[in-house]
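Hi R.,

Here are the chain sequences for the assembly we discussed:
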Amino acid sequence: MEEIETCPAQRLLKMLSGKWKAEIFRLAVESPLRFNSLLRQIQGSNKQSLATALKELEEEGLLEKTTIKLKPLHIEYNLTEKGQALIPVFQQLEGLS
Amino acid sequence: MEEIETCPAQRLLKMLSGKWKAEIFRLAVESPLRFNSLLRQIQGSNKQSLATALKELEEEGLLEKTTIKLKPLHIEYNLTEKGQALIPVFQQLEGLS
DNA sequence: TTAGGTAGTCAAAAAAATTAGACTTATTGC
DNA sequence: GCAATAAGTCTAATTTTTTTGACTACCTAA
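And here is the predicted structure of the full complex:
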């Protein structure tokens, strides 16, 4: 389905729409994310939804996935520069709450 | 279904989620809104969706509905103070696009 | 070698959001 | 009076999103 983009802020807004993305983003600001921890941290969520959200955030360029090859060999998600650029927007939003 | 609010920005984000709300908001910044004009301006939308979105934006306190009792007696939607407070967030968002 | 953790995928079901189309009520202009 | 415009509502269908549960594959520790 074709989506026409009229409002420039709309794309960004859409990036963070979805039931879990804002929460994931908030946690990513605090520290790198790992899949199973996230699943435990966000009660009410589930594997599939988190997997989808993480994939989308990655595709949108807000998060990046890294394989940590040391010690217990695992995967981390970190905010990209683009992702960090969104932090002030969140802060402003929180200021209005 | 119970929704627990962990992230304070999430509520605001949710306010503007949904297919048409960001666009409606953007138009509301420019001038007061009227139902049928909106329906014509936003191509691809429909009565029901706009009615729902307007009602929600109103409930969230971002828009207010006024009956204009003059001339051709009609209804207008305007940004509330709370709605206006969101304008800078939008601008910041646009700056990042 | 067997159990447990990590990081998922897949298909199907359930729930939520969006749309279509018929219908309503009130006010105008002619 | 008659037709048009404005601002919707209602029900049902369709589409999209989210959830569930089973299943993979790879490591590591005992």
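Residues 34-36, 39, 47-48, 51, 72-75 of chain B lie near DNA strand D (CB under 10 Å from a C1'). Chain B has six helices and two strands.

Let me know if anything looks off.

Best,
T.
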